[in-house]
Design brief:
This protein has 247 residues and is α+β, with helices and mostly antiparallel strands. Helix content is 17%, strand content 21%.
């Protein structure tokens, strides 16, 4: 699958099948799409606190499907990402498992800059953040074509080839200024771009900012309790459902 050009990129619609979450893996009636793991806050072997606190658990190293759809339910509505493993296998595997195993459930959108990006990936539990502090992955080959609706792992920059961890950003517009950086786009938004545009952005860079700004310490150490106290208007992810696309 090839990247869309900056001028031809169009967010495609997606029709999702109705499905019933039962706290573990479920299936959908949608032709060609099956639910891999539905995380609903119920402790299961794939979403327990013990798994989140143990980055060495083999579950975190499962390979992502060639293509999968990640459905994010948020306080503003639903958006869906298409994750394409061929674009960056190392990053895709990490993102797929973080989503599948519930790492992003109840996470806050701590960085929302209108006309630029939306970013999240700090867990609500400080103990989980501490466990993942030094779990960076090696960079994939750069695919830094930051058009509206594409997403990638945040990272510190070209000086270090291993700085991607858990934080993801989505481009809210074409951002050619970011193309000089060795980011690896992992897919595109295929539903709910309007939801991302509507996320609360009043705090901008003040509510933690990006990795390079060095201001995320209080968020990592205080988790949701700190963010809710200091930045109560932040929107959040309710849960993420991962669906394999069979084509």
């Amino acid at each position: 699958m090839t990247m869309p050009s900056r001028h031809s990129f169009v967010i495609a619609p997606l029709v999702l099948a109705t499905f019933v979450a039962v706290g573990c893996a479920t299936s959908t009636a949608n032709s060609g799409t099956t639910a891999d793991n539905t995380v609903s806050g119920v402790a299961t072997p794939h979403s327990s606190a013990a798994v989140l606190l143990d980055p060495t658990n083999p579950e975190w190293r499962r390979a992502a499907p060639a293509r999968s759809h990640l459905r994010f339910e948020t306080t503003r509505g639903v958006f869906v990402l298409e994750l394409v493993r061929a674009w960056g296998p190392i990053g895709a595997d990490r993102f797929y498992n973080l989503a599948r195993l519930g790492y992003y459930d109840d996470a806050r959108f701590h960085r929302v800059v209108p006309g630029y990006i939306v970013q999240w990936g700090i867990n609500g539990n400080p103990a989980v953040n501490a466990a993942w502090k030094d779990q960076q992955i090696t960079n994939d080959s750069p695919r830094s074509h930051n058009v509206r609706g594409t997403f990638a792992f945040a990272q510190f920059g070209p000086a270090d080839s291993k700085t991607r961890n858990t934080e993801i950003y989505i481009n809210l517009r074409d951002n050619p200024r970011s193309d000089a950086e060795p980011f690896t786009m992992l897919g595109t938004v295929i539903e709910g771009m309007d939801v991302l545009d509507s996320l609360y952005s009043g705090y901008g860079e003040k509510s933690g900012g990006g990795l390079r700004q060095g201001k995320q310490g209080p968020l990592l150490e205080g988790g949701n309790a700190y963010m809710d106290r200091e930045y109560p208007k932040l929107d959040r992810i309710l849960r993420v459902t991962v669906m394999t696309v069979e084509r």
